Amino acid sequence: MRKASIATVLATLTLAQLQVSSSYAQSETWERPDVKAGDSWTYQEKDLWTNAVRPPYTLTAQDVGPLTIKVQRTNQDGRHFDWVYTRDWNLAARPGPRWVEPYWPSYSWPLEVGKKWSGKATWPGPASMTGTWKASFESKVVGVEKITVAAGTFDAVRIESKGRYSTNARSGSWNGWGGEIIETIWYAPAVRRAVKFTYTDTSGARILRKDQTELIKYKLSE
Predict the structure, then answer these.
(1) Model confidence pLDDT, tens digit, residues 29-74
(2) DSSP alpha helix (H) spans, the chain
(3) What CATH number did the domain enclosing 198 receive?
(4) The pTM is what?
(5) H, E, C per residue of 130-174
(6) What is the pLDDT of residue 49?
(7) Close Cβ partners of 183 (under 8 Å, ≥ 6 residues apart)
(8) Residue-range definition of the domain harbouring residue 111
(9) What is the rounded CA–CA span in Å between residue 100 and residue 85?
(10) Structural domain tally of the chain?
(11) Are residues 167 and 88 in the same domain?
């Protein structure tokens, strides 16, 4: 009888430990990465609609300030382009310049499983469009996954975002244009950036863009 009681107690303690461990894993948080000047990441893009693989490109952190990260993108042909992100790794400006106001809301730190956030963004259209684009996003941290890409195998935080976008242009082919964006990011703390992300842009039944980007190599400054 005593042996049965001890076994029951041990089983109860083991179950409690497992529950605590599971609870701890679910409540773990990830702070904003300490990006440093000189950090670089090389990515490869694939068009999932046509299966075409695009030439790789490298992003290098040129200057890390209290509010922004200035990044230089270097294409395989040697051309350079300047990009600007917020300190939180949210896109603020692309070449053109094409500013995103206030920014593309990809991240909201600290990250933890189950966390949700929303955001809005506005950005100018191409020269042929007289108006601007605007979008509203809903994002959520859905879990932690072990993911393998060309650069290695990483523990990554998976973020899923959905957004609706439209334009205020009221002339030509842009009149009333709008659609939906679905974006998934696998952020790896070990590399201070995403190791994989997918991006799908649809308008009605039409798929306008469906891309997958993966990290193929990286170098971090000490």
Answers:
(1) 999 999 999 999 999 999 998 999 999 999 999 999 999 999 999 9
(2) 2-27
(3) 2.40.360.20
(4) 0.84
(5) CCEEEEEEEEEEEEEEEEEECCEEEEEEEEEEEEEEEECCCCHHH
(6) 87
(7) 106, 160, 161, 162, 163, 197, 198, 199, 200
(8) 31-219
(9) 10
(10) 2
(11) yes
